[in-house]
């Protein structure tokens, strides 16, 4: 299968591209810069210059391929306004991709986060939030899944709060970055809130399985660790960096503060049973031992 991948040179995307190529697929990778184009080509993909703000390029990529995996998302989390721009840009991009695929029966695999459910681990049957800091993303994913009624084999892989590889990535990576800048390995609240996690290489396998096998309108959880306590995450970061570990104000994390403070474990039982997905790489706390002082 020839697959159009957005975000193919990021932490998750590079793992997905490698997984696709290893299993005999070919990849057309969206590249928003010369550096991204070179990285995509070096990985074995054909680069397509453009970004999420280029609907004509997105439609062209979808038209030239047998399926789409969408992973790209803006990386500016500095303010609520910046986060809103990221969400709006992604919504427009997915609208363009979906319109190109209507009536084709081809797969469109998109991405969202695992939902938060009070008092228990979320499952694939739980809806994604459509309010709050990233509620717009939930509305967009819901619309993409609705394309199943228009002959698009649309499906969504829900990623946990941390997708990690060699000690970097996800919300745990943000904690590490903030710790380096502030001199404290911090966590919001009492730190007993739990974050789910998955290794990027395990997540990549699930994206491929969803592309190849998933039925239209379905959702899947790329969750290996159901929930690690945030203060345990901060403790490993602090030890690796030689920094004190302490609770810090939730405002430290800007617009992501309410999400960082929430207890949000998640399950992938149905995903494992239905698609035969089984994570094999190190869990988050083990992988964080790769952080370099």
TrEMBL record:
Residues 3-217 form the NAD-dependent epimerase/dehydratase domain. Residues 263-272 have a biased composition (Polar residues). GO terms for molecular function: aldehyde dehydrogenase (NAD+) activity. It comes from the Bacteria. Pfam families: Epimerase. SUPFAM superfamilies: NAD(P)-binding Rossmann-fold domains. Residues 112-137, 259-293 are annotated as: Disordered. GO terms for cellular component: cytoplasm. PANTHER family: NAD(P)-BINDING DOMAIN-CONTAINING PROTEIN-RELATED, PROTEIN YEEZ. This is 3-beta hydroxysteroid dehydrogenase.
């Amino acid at each position: 299968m020839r697959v159009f991948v957005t975000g193919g040179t990021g932490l998750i995307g590079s793992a997905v591209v490698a997984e696709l190529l290893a299993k005999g697929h070919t990849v057309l990778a969206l590249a928003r810069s010369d550096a991204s184009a070179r990285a995509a080509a070096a990985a074995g993909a054909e680069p397509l210059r453009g970004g999420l703000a280029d609907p004509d390029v997105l439609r062209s990529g979808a038209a030239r391929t047998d399926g789409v995996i969408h992973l790209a998302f803006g990386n500016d989390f500095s303010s609520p306004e910046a986060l809103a721009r990221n969400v709006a840009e992604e919504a427009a991009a997915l609208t363009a991709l979906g319109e190109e695929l209507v009536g084709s029966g081809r797969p469109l695999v998109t991405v969202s986060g695992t939902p938060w459910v009070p008092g228990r681990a979320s499952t694939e049957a739980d809806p994604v939030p459509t309010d709050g800091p990233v509620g717009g993303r939930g509305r967009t994913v819901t619309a993409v899944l609705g394309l199943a009624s228009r002959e698009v084999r649309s499906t969504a892989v829900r990623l946990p709060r941390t997708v990690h590889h060699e000690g970097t990535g996800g919300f745990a990576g943000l904690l590490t970055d903030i710790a380096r800048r502030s001199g404290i390995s911090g966590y919001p609240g009492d730190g007993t809130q739990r974050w789910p996690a998955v290794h990027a290489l395990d997540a990549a396998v699930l994206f491929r399985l969803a592309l190849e096998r998933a039925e239209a309108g379905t959702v899947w959880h790329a969750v290996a660790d159901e929930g690690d306590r945030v203060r345990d995450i901060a403790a490993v970061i602090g030890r690796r960096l030689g920094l004190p570990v302490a609770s810090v104000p939730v405002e430290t994390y800007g617009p992501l503060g309410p999400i960082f403070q929430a207890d949000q474990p998640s399950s992938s039982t149905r995903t494992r049973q239905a698609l035969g997905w089984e994570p094999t790489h190190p869990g988050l706390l083990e992988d964080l031992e790769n952080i370099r002082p």
